[in-house]
Amino acid sequence: MFEKQYDVIVVGAGHAGSEAAAAAANMGSKTLLITMNLQNIAQMSCNPAMGGIAKGQIVREIDAMGGYSGIVSDTSAIQFKMLNKSKGPAMWSPRVQSDRMRFAEDWRIKLEQTPNLDFYQEMVAGLIIKNDKVVGVRTSLGLEIMANSVVCTNGTFLNGLIHIGDKQFGGGRAGERAATGITKDLIEAGFEAGRMKTGTPPRVDGRSLDYSKMVEQPGDDIPGKFSYSDETKPLSKQRACHMTYTSNEVHEILKEGFDRSPMFNGRIKSIGPRYCPSIEDKINRFADKDRHQLFVEPEGWNTVEVYVNGFSTSLPEDVQFKALSSVAGFENVKFFRPGYAIEYDYFPPTQLKHTLETKLVEGLYFAGQINGTTGYEEAACQGMMAGINAALKVQEKDEFILKRNEAYIGVLIDDLITKGTEEPYRMFTSRAEYRTLLRQDNADFRLTEKSYNIGLASEDRMRKMEDKKEKSFKFVQFLKDLSVVPEEANPVLEKRKSSPMKQSDKVFKVFSRPQITMEDVKNFSGVEEFISENDLDEEMIEQTEIQVKYSGYIEKEKNNADKLNRLENIRIPNNFDYSKIKSMSYEAREKLKKVQPATISQASRISGVSPNDISVLLVYMGR
Description:
Elements: E1 5-11, H1 15-26, E2 31-35, E3 49-51, H2 55-64, H3 69-75, E4 77-83, E5 93-98, H4 100-112, E6 117-121, E7 124-130, E8 133-139, E9 144-152, E10 161-164, E11 167-170, H5 182-188, E12 194-200, E13 203-205, E14 215-217, E15 241-245, H6 248-256, H7 279-285, E16 293-298, E17 305-309, H8 317-324, E18 335-337, E19 340-346, E20 364-366, H9 376-394, H10 408-419, H11 443-453, H12 459-481, E21 483-484, H13 486-495, E22 505-506, H14 507-511, H15 518-521, H16 527-533, H17 538-549, H18 551-568, H19 586-595, H20 600-604, H21 611-620
Parallel strand pairs: 1-2, 1-9, 2-6, 9-20
Antiparallel strand pairs: 3-5, 4-5, 7-8, 8-9, 10-11, 10-19, 12-19, 13-17, 13-18, 14-15, 15-16, 16-17, 21-22
C-alpha cells in the first residue's frame, strides 16, 4: 500500500503541504503526502490569485529556490499585473489572476512527476510521539505510518468551524469535514494552542452581472511572469477583471443583519485578518466611508463563476444576497455559494525554531496557517522551508535558515518565531527593513545558489542565474567605462528636462539621473551594439537599469545589513539560563526564556527586550 518507513511525512496538501512535499522529495528524501482529499491538492480556498504586494516577492523567492508555486502560477494564469510600477523597484510586486481549476490540476501533475513522492488519501487523526520525538502518524482508520520527521500543514482544518449567520457546522472548507485529533495530541505534548478566524466572499454567476456598470481592470500591456525558468512563457492573451463599489444603501442593508452576525453576537470569539476584514467589519470600523471597492474576479478561462473580492462575509445568506443585489452591476446577481467565516486551531509560532521545527518535539515541523499566517504565498514559503529542513535533518546535514536581509521568507519566519502573532499574519513590504535588497527582480541572485548548494535548485537554474548575473554586471561595467559627449547627450537631456552637460561624462553617471531611461541610453553610440553582441534579454537589461539607478540605496542597505549580520553571528547557547541575569528587567528575562532566541540579533527584536537588556546580556556573555 505504501512504504513502512518514510524520511518525511507531510500532513495536508494545501499550498504549504505541496511545497513541503516537493522540497523534501526533490532533495532525495522518501516522502509521503497524506491528505483528506487528493482531488483538492493546492486548492485555492479563497481568492483565485497569486502574488501581490510583498506576496509576489515571496513567490519569486520560492521559484528562485526551485519550488513549484511560480511555475504553476504562470501555467494557470489568466491575467498578469506588476503592481506599484510607478514606485521604485523595491515596491514592484507581481500578481496573477489564476484559473482556479487549472491551478490545482497543474500542481497535482507537478507533484505526480516528482520522484521520491508517494500519496495517500486519509485523515491524520494523531501523531506518534516517543521520548519527545515524532516517529510517525496515526490515521482515522487506525493505520500507523512511521517516519523520521513530520511536517504539519493543516490549514484551517484543525477543529474547523464554519459560520454563516446564526448557523454553524464543523468543516475545514465548505463541503469538507474538519480534522480532529492532532490538536489533542499536541496539547498533551505540552503545546499552547489558540483559535483564529478567516473568511471568504460569495461566488456568483458571471452571466447575471452587468459589467457595463463596472470599471474594467485589464492586465499589463506587456505581461511578465513569475518563474525564472524557461519552463513557462508570459501570457499572450488575458482576461479582464472589473471593479465596482458598495454604497450607503448596501451598508444599511448589511447593518440589518448585524444582530444575526456571528462577528457581532459573540459566536465568533477569535481574531480575523486585520488587512483583509469582512465587509461587515469594514463598515463597522470605517463608519465614515460611504463606499468600499469590490473587485470582480473571474475564476478561470472558461467558467462563469466569479469571486467577489472585498465582500468577505459571514452574514446570513438572505442578507448577503439582498446587499450584493444593491451593488452597481449586481442587480440581477445569482449566487453559486454564499460567503462564510471559519474558525480553526493554530499554535503560537514562538514554539518553533528558525527551521520551523518545534522546540518541544524533535523532528516535528509546522508550516502555514497552523503557525497563524494567512495567504497562499506565506503558507507556501513556510512549507518549502519546513520540507527543506525536515529533509536535511533526516540526512544529518546542517539546517537551512534565511536571514532577514536575504529574503522576505527570512523576515516572515523571524517575525513569527520571535514576535509571535495574535492575529492572522500577512506579509507587507513595510515588514522588511532591507526591502531595497529584497526586490522581486533579484530573488534568483539572492537565493538560487544557496538552494543549489543544499541540493534543491537544479543545475539548469544555477547556470541560468549565473549567465544573467554575469551579463548584467558586465553591462553595468560597460556603462561605467563608456563616455558620451555633450553633443550626443544634450538633445536627450533637454527632451527629458534634465540640465545639459558641458563636458564629456560616463554614461553610467548620465543614466543615474532620475529622468533618464534605458530607452534614452540606448540612443548613445555603442549601447545597442553591446546589447546585441552580448545577447542580453529584457531581464538582464532591467537588472542593469536597477543596479545603475539605485546603486547608492543598494550600497547603503548592504552596509546596514552587514552590521546586522555581526549581531547575527553572536550565538546564544541552547537553553541559556536568563534567570541568573538579575540586572536585566523581569519582562526581558521572561520573554527571552519563552522565545529562546538563537542569536543576539534575534533577541534584540523581541517585544519587551530593550537595548539596555541586550547590553547586559552581551556583558554577561563576555562580549
